[in-house]
Write a structure and sequence with these properties.
It comes from Azospirillum lipoferum (strain 4B). By secondary structure, the chain is an alpha+beta fold. The chain contains 22 helices and eleven strands. It is globular, with a radius of gyration of 28 Å. The termini are far apart.
Amino acid sequence: MFRILRNLIRMAVIGRTVARHDALPTSLLGTAPGLLWLWRRIARRDVPGREGERLARALAELGPTYIKLGQLLSTRSDLVGERMAVDLAELQDKLPPFPGHQARAIIEAEFGQPVQSLFQSFDDKPVAAASIAQVHFAVTADGQEVAVKVLRPGIEQAFERDIDLFYRLASLAQWVLPRLKRLRLTEIVDTFARTSRLEMDLRMEAAAASELASNFKDDPTFNVPKVDWERTGGRVLTLERIRGFKVDEPARISAAGFDRDEILAMASASFFNQVFRDGFFHADLHPGNLFINEQGTITAVDFGIMGRLDRETRYYLADMLIGFLTGDYRRVAIVHFEAGYVPRHQSIEIFTQACRAIGEPLQNKPLADISVGRLLAQLFAVTEQFEMETQPQLLLLQKSMLTAEGVGRLLNPNINMWELARPLIEEWMRENRGPEAQFIDDAGALLSTVRRIPALVGEAERVTRDIAEGGVRLHPQTVRQMLNGWETRRRSDRAALWVIAALLAVIALQML
C-alpha cells in the first residue's frame, strides 16, 4: 500500500513538472484525441524551445535518475527521432554538490578506515558534481596526486524506487496507448536498469579504464589515468590526477604551444582504433571528458559508459561504409541482409533503392565533408521501415561518432576527423576486408571444419554402438549404404586436407 501511494505521489510530481515545461511529445498522443485535448488544457503554452529541449529541462529538474534516462534516450534516435536525440544529448549531467563530510563518511565506510590513513590530504570541495557521483582531488599517503570519485549518498535506493515507477509507467503507457507497444518500453527500462546498476558500481568503471589503458599501452598519443586499486571499491573510484586543458579550450591549448591539428589527428586515430581495432570504445567522449595533458597528449576520463563491437559487427560497419563511399548500394543492402539486421522477407531491391536515397548526396563530396555519425543516423531512420531490429551497440556508436565529430570541429572546423584517419582506415580495410584477408578467413573456416570431423565421426560411432547395444538390428542394405557413405566422406576429407595444405603453402609464399 505504501509503495502504491509513493508511486502515485511521484507520478503527480512528474506530471506537474512535465506540464510546467510542456515537455510531453504530442506526437505520442496523436491517436488519443481525448488525452491530447486534456494535455493542451493543463500544459503551459508559453515555454520556449523545441520539444527535446523542454523535455531535457524537465528531466534535469526531476533529478539524477531522470537525467540518466534522458542520456539513454539520446542514444535511441530510432525511438525519439534524431532532432530530439540531439537535444537530449545536450542534457547537462550536473547537480549541486553534496557536502565534503558526507563524501568522507562514504569513503570511510567503503574501506573501513579513516580518510587520514588513505590520503595525506583530501579537498572537501568537489571539482565536479554529476547525477550519480562527484569528484574530489586528494593526495595519497605515498604522495600521489589523485582524483577521487564518490557516489552520491542514497543514490542506489533512490534509483531502485524510480526504476520500480518506470516499470509501472511503461505498462500504463502501453495500456492507455497500445500504439506505443512497438517502442518496447519495458525493454528500454530493462536496459536502463541494467546499465545504470553497472555504472553505479565504480569497480566496473575502474575495470573499463584499465582495459582501455591496456589497449593503448604502447600508444603515446592517447592516455588513460591509472587506477589506484587499493583505494577503489563499489562506491569509490580513485584515479591518477590529470593536469591540463579541456579539449574545448582551443585558445589555452594554442597558448601552451600545442598544435591543434596534431591533437585532432591524435583524436581521430584514437577513436578509430577504439572502434575498429579493439571493438571497445569510450561512448561518452564529450568535451568535458577529454583533456590535453601537460605533455600534449589526449587524456580521457569518466569511463562509466563504454561500448563494445564484436568482430562481425565491425566487418559489417566496414563493408557498409565502403559501399556508401563507393556508391555500391547493392553491397550495402546485402551486408544488412547477411548480418540478419533486415528480415529475409523484405525486398532487397527496394532496400537497395532506400540506401541509394541516403548515399547519393555523398557522391562527389570529399571525405572531409562527410559526417559518418549523421550517415548512420539517416540509415537507422530508413531501416525502421524495413523492420530492422534495433541494434543498441550501433546506436551508441552513432551517438559517439557525432560527439567525436563535434570535438573535431572544436579543434579545427575546417578539417574532418575521418580525413585525418584515412590512412588508418585504408590500412585496416586492406588487412581485414581485402582479398588476402578474405582468403585467410576462408582458409581458417575450412580448417575449422576439418578439425571437427574427428569429433563428428566419434559421435557417429558412439550412436551406432549405442544402437547396437540396445538391440536395434540394421538391414544389410543400410549397412552397405553407411559403409559407402563413410568411404565417400574419407575421400572428401583427404581432398579437404590437400586443399588446406595448398592454401597454407600459398599463404607462406606470400609472406616470404
